[in-house]
Amino acid sequence: MKLTVKQAAERAGVSDSLIYECCAEGRLPHYKLGRKGRRGTIRIEEADLDAFLAACRQEAKAQEEAFVLKRIKRNG
Q1: Which pTM does this prediction carry?
Q2: Share of the chain above pLDDT 70, in %
């Protein structure tokens, strides 16, 4: 199924303008339909959106040793 920009944005949880930007930069594969010289419309394959989102995923970094608990001095 091909998604509109609005549908793709809702599915990804981002703004329409971010989807347009990713398409314009060539980072998100899409279809641009319409006459030459006209604005036209953009359609995005669900699989292309899913692959794009997977490629954007950032893995969590390991916690640094700076977060090691300090020793508590006990009286007694």
Answers
A1: 0.73
A2: 80
